[in-house]
Structure formats: C-alpha cells, structure tokens
C-alpha cells in the first residue's frame, strides 16, 4: 500500500496504558507492507511485551541502549528509518525529548535520525494540560517534530473523560502515511483540494427519500490520497456508508442543493476539484408534510431536475483550477463520458460501467478509463479503489506541475 510498501517505519512505544493500541498500529503498518522496527522503553514492557510486537511485525524488537550485541543500534535504526513515530508518547518521554536527553535507546534514536518524526502524546488530562507539558510540546514543534494532539474521551479506569486519550491506530496510521508522502514534497503539497463523495438524498416525506447506491468509497479514497500527499483537503460528503477519513476537513451535506452550496463556497480558492459524488439528478417537486400513507393506491411522484453542481462551477473556478469529473454509465459509456467532459469543461473525467462486476457502487474495486481534455484515453485494469485514487492523483500531480 502506498506509501508504506518497502519503507521502514520506526515505532517507538513508551510506558503508558495506551500501548495496547500500539500493537494494532504495528499490525496496520506491517499489513501495508512497511518494515516496522519497534523500540520499546523499559517502562513500556510493564504494559506490553516485546514478544507481542515481534509476532506482529516478524522483526526483532529493540529496547536497551546497552544490550549485548547491540552496539550502535541507535545509529543503525536512525539511519534505516524513513519515518519515526512514537505512540504513545508519555509526559515523561516528551520532557526528556524536549531537553535533548539520550539516556535510553529511543531518545538516542531521535537525536541520531534525519527522518521525519511524529509524536503521539497520551496521558492523564491534567498532565496534558500542565504548563510544563504544553511548553515541552511547543518546543518540540519548534524544532521540527510533528505532534498529533490527543483525543478527548474515556481515560484510564476511574479518571473520567478529557483530552489526553491516544488517537485510534487508524488515525495514527493515516498521519504516518502523510509523514512519508509529504516528505517527498510532491506537486499537491500545500495545495487546496476539494473532493465530493457519496450520494445525496431528496425527501419525499419526513421518512422517505430519493437516492442511489453510492457508498462514498471512491471519494473517501481520493480525499485520503490527496491529504496524504500534503494537500489541504476539504471532503464534501453526503450520507456515506463508510467512515470519513482521518485528516481532511469534513463538510456534511444531505441534499444536492446543500452539496451545490458547499462546493460553490470552496471552489473559488481550490487548486483542484474532484467531483466523485453521485448527487441525485431528480427530486420531488413537492415534499409531503407528513408520512404518506399506503391508502388504496401508490402515490404519483412528480420530479424536477436538481442543480447541476459541476456545470455551475465553470464560472466559479480559478484560471488554473484542475477539475476532475466522474461518469458512471450503463450504455454508450465512452460516448456519454466524452460529452460530459466537453459540456462541463473538465480536465479529466473518470468513467466506468455500472453493469461491470466489481466496478460499480459499493464494492472495494473499480475498473476505470481516464479521458483527458486533450482527447487521450487511458484504460486502467481492475484495481482497488485506493489504487485507482492514487492513479488519478498521480495524473492530477502531473497536471499541477504545468500550472
């Protein structure tokens, strides 16, 4: 999985109860085909065993700075790492790192590495709020470390709720991906990217609506890929059946009209617009104030067109905005997509056949053809939607280099 495949991630684990989440993070990184070198502090082994990480990563775990046969491990590990993440990072560890100490293997690695570093604090809420901890965090940020602020939620037993809880492994995993990818400073780093995802809903009465089978998976994959590359991403999402990704700013909408307004507000300052959503094309002309009863016959719905979101952006776009549309067709697939490409003034359109198995709504794979403003066509094989998203963003980055 890009950008983890073949990369070396050093995972530091310090002595906090949240270290149980670090095991799952190690598993996620390994599953994405990263080489995971785990460094545990002595206090971490009071909470979780080194054997757990060895079983999950298939690699030896490192702990002591002066372990027999491990001379200069801190230098070797520091040089091998493409990224370093410490999760959890306790208050004690933050204090030692902020003062430049190197009395254990993990702090020594931090001083020896040139790789980007992500620290993930986890502690009691009062410890997180303490002026000394806040000063340590501020100093660590000032010298180039990235800090993922803790979540709010239930803390250790009896401690109630508050800020200090370590983010979930999936969130940390996403931030490690951004750390790896944005270090390469691609064409999307710092660019503003707007992505739409999912269906919209048009009410018939208070309990029924018109919609479609879109899950939002393709849009989520695109938003994740763009954010991982260092872009500032806004994801405008209808009612999706998948979780929103970590990182992008999320804008919830329900109707096509709401999606159109949200897109209209963001497009003028966007460098890239990717319209992966499947907004409903028709809505009832009138919405019943109360639930329509079955009665003796079925009601007749009179429909009207919803706003054409993509066409409406033509006059709102900046002169260098890159615009990507999607076309899900059932017949004359390429012909209809080419018409939409011209009609909506797109730089690229991604087209697929809704009738093809494994390439329609709700599945994890897609087979698409990319059509360009220049008239070129590029057919991609059946890929996961994450791979399709990366392929699309690769082409967008190529366009961005020329603008």
Descriptive account of the structure:
- This protein is of the alpha/beta class and 403 residues long.
- The chain folds into 2 domains: 8-182, Rossmann fold (3-Layer(aba) Sandwich); 192-401, Rossmann fold.
- It is built from 13 helices and 21 strands.
- The strands form 6 sheets. An 8-stranded mixed sheet has the order 12-11-8-13-16-17-19-20, with helices on both faces.
- Helix 1 (19-31) packs across helix 8 (169-182) and helix 9 (217-228) crosses helix 13 (385-401).
State the main characteristics.
403 residues, Rossmann fold, 33% helix, alpha/beta, eight-stranded mixed beta sheet
Task: Give a quick rundown of the structure.
With 403 residues, this protein is an alpha/beta fold. The protein contains 13 helices and 21 strands.
Topology:
Layout: E1 8-13, H1 19-31, E2 35-40, H2 50-57, H3 73-80, E3 83-89, H4 91-98, H5 105-112, E4 117-121, H6 125-129, H7 131-142, E5 146-147, E6 151-154, E7 161-165, H8 169-182, E8 192-197, E9 202-205, E10 208-210, H9 217-228, E11 232-237, E12 249-252, H10 256-266, E13 272-275, E14 282-284, E15 303-305, H11 309-312, E16 322-329, H12 333-343, E17 348-353, E18 365-366, E19 369-372, E20 377-379, E21 383-384, H13 385-401
Parallel strand pairs: 1-2, 1-3, 3-4, 4-5, 8-11, 8-13, 11-12, 13-16, 16-17
Antiparallel strand pairs: 6-7, 9-10, 14-15, 17-19, 18-21, 19-20
Helix pairs in contact: 1-2, 1-8, 3-5, 4-7, 9-13
């Amino acid at each position: 999985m890009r950008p983890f495949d073949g990369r070396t991630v050093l995972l530091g684990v310090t002595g906090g109860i949240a270290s149980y989440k670090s095991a799952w993070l190690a598993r996620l990184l390994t599953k994405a085909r990263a080489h995971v070198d785990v460094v545990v502090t002595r206090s971490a082994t009071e909470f979780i065993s080194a054997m757990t990480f060895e079983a999950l990563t298939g690699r030896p775990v490192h702990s002591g700075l002066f372990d027999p046969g491990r001379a200069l491990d801190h230098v070797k590990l520091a040089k091998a790492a493409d990224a370093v993440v410490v999760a959890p990072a306790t208050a004690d560890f933050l204090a030692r790192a902020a003062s430049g100490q190197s009395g254990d293997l993990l702090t020594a690695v931090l001083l020896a590495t040139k790789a980007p570093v992500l620290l993930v604090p986890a502690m009691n809420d009062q410890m997180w709020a303490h002026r000394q901890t806040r000063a340590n965090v501020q100093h660590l940020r000032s010298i180039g470390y990235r800090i993922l602020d803790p979540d709010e939620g239930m803390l250790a037993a009896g401690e109630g709720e508050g800020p200090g809880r370590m983010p979930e492994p999936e969130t940390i995993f996403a931030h490690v991906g951004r750390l790896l990818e944005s270090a390469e400073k691609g064409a999307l780093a710092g660019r503003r990217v707007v992505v739409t995802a999912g269906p919209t809903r048009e009410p018939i009465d208070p309990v029924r609506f018109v919609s479609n089978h879109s899950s939002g998976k393709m849009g989520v994959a695109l938003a994740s890929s763009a954010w991982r590359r260092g872009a500032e991403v806004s994801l405008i999402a209808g009612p999706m059946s998948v979780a929103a990704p970590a990182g992008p700013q999320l804008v919830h909408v329900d109707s096509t009209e709401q999606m159109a307004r949200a897109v209209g507000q963001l497009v003028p300052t966007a460098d890239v617009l990717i319209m992966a959503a499947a907004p409903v094309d028709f809505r009832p002309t009138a919405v019943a104030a109360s639930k329509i009863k079955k009665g003796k016959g079925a009601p007749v719905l009179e429909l009207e067109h919803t706003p054409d979101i993509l066409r409406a952006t033509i006059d709102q776009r900046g002169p260098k905005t890159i615009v990507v549309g999607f076309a899900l067709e059932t017949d004359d697939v390429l012909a209809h997509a080419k018409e939409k490409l011209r009609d909506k003034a797109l730089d690229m359109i991604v087209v697929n056949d809704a009738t093809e198995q494994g390439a329609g709504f709700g599945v994890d794979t897609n087979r698409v053809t990319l059509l360009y403003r220049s008239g070129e066509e590029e057919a991609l094989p059946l890929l996961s939607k994450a791979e399709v998203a990366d392929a699309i963003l690769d082409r967008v980055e190529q366009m961005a280099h020329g603008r």
